[in-house]
# Entry
Amino acid sequence: MEKKKKSRIFHNTSIRYTIFIYFTVTALAASLLITFSLYQRLSSQVEQTVQEENQSLINQVARSVESYLRTVMKLSDSLYYGAVKNADLNSESINNEIMLLYDNNKDNVDNIALFSQEGKLLEAVPAARLKTNLNVTGESWFMNALVKTENQHFSNPHVQYVFDNNENLYRWVISLSRAVEVTQGTSTAQGVLLVDLSFSSIEHLFDGVTSGKGSYVYLISNDGEILYHPKIQLIDSGRMQENNLAAAEYKDGTHQERFLSKDRIITVKSIGYTGWKVVGVTPKSVVSLNTIKTRLFIVFIITLILFILALINSYISSRITNPIKELEKSVGILEAGDLETPVYMGGSYEIQNLGNSISNMARQIRLLMDDIVTEHEAKRKQEFDTLQSQINPHFLYNTLDIIVWMIENEQKTEAVKVVTALARFFRISLSKGKSIITVKDEIEHVRSYLMIQHMRFKNKFSYYIDVEEGCMNYACLKLMLQPLVENAIYHGMEFMDGDGEITLKVWREEDNLFFSVKDNGFGMRPEQVESLFSDSVHVTSSRGSGIGVKNVNERIKLYFGEKYGLSIDSEPDVGTEVLMHLPAIPYEEIEERGKA
# Structure
């Protein structure tokens, strides 16, 4: 059932719609495949581009931090080699040199201090004093400096706790420490140089550094401890977690990780000398094309492609189907019966060939129809001619009875007239088998008939024949007037007592020839007039010739055309007039056509 339903749907679908649907579906499938392929490729390119941009950004931040640290290390070298190493602390003060260097770098430096190996404060800039009960020899920065004397050591960010300072009690710093050589008199000993760097300087290097929505950059030590994080307060409060320990294990470059059920891209760059690492974090959702805007853009692109494809498919289907539709219109007109209409032959070669074949077929159908019509007309003419040749024998018997009666009553002259009229009547009725004769012969024929009937009915009626000059040589049908006169006699004059009158007129108007048969008989009602045209062709009268009004009318139309024929004007108790309309055609022209 479902298959039949689908088959019926496709059967009722136009070829244009079918082509449009198939083209559109195929193009849509290809578009989706291309779009998916481009989407995958574009996603890969976007991810690669983001990774490259992140790597470039992290490298830039790392270089900025390295540059900052090198600047601080140069300051440390300047303090050591320019102020501390060549100075005798017993005889001279190095405070001015240290103060000068501090003033030049105070935006990045909070404190500069020099300690002896025993932890005694030798110099401090700006002026400060150690916190009470603080033994610096136990601090990590102090011990690291004396353990690895050749290195400079950076601590993790912390609140400054070494010096008492009523201002900025909770100032975050990063301590740089190194071992130095201190000269006091003739003795030389090791000491520790401490430079507290302002943590805000580090923060400034990271301010505004981001690679997109949800992305951020942070700084960790070589053991994974966070040195800087834009959301450090959330991390400290436990409201946020960071995968910093895992990041410490990553090598420099880009890495994929899944942390807290979210995919992220991690970019790592180590900072020389310190071992610190700059870590960039970018959510995978930022890199992918699965954002709402991107989806809307893809939907827009697909919609635009579909719209363009629909226009293209509509144009293509129109170019293909319009010639077929035009050809279909031509076939529809042919099917309606107009075989003369020109058949459309445009479009592609196949459609042109099909149109040509249909045109040839229509031409063959016209020829066959013409042959059938010709054959049918010939058959009808033969039937009419056969009917014309079948004069009712009652007319002949009655006429012969009149002749016998006249001879018996020694009316020889009248008998001769009747015999002569009967001979002329039969001579013209035969007419050598011709159906078309001259008006002159037809008038002579009906005159003979009227003469015989006038003598037969013993002067019950009178008749008059009036033919316009010049009409005698026109063509008309044989036995055309006699049936009409016969009807006037039998149906109009038979019961009259000598007052009957039949008038026959012939005249021409331009290219038209008219015959009028008029009587003053009983007349007819409209339904009787209508019945004359509906009687069967072969219905005969026991007294007449057997050729009815309908027969005459159809013969005229058959031989001369549909616009010619009979019309009857009749009124009861007044009379009847039958008007016959023929074309005015010279008989010679008919003969020439017959010869051709």
Q: What stands out?
A: Confidence is low (pLDDT under 50) at residues 536-546. The two ends are 66 Å apart (CA to CA). The CA atoms of residues 120 and 136 lie 8 Å apart. The first strand starts at residue 109 and ends at 116.
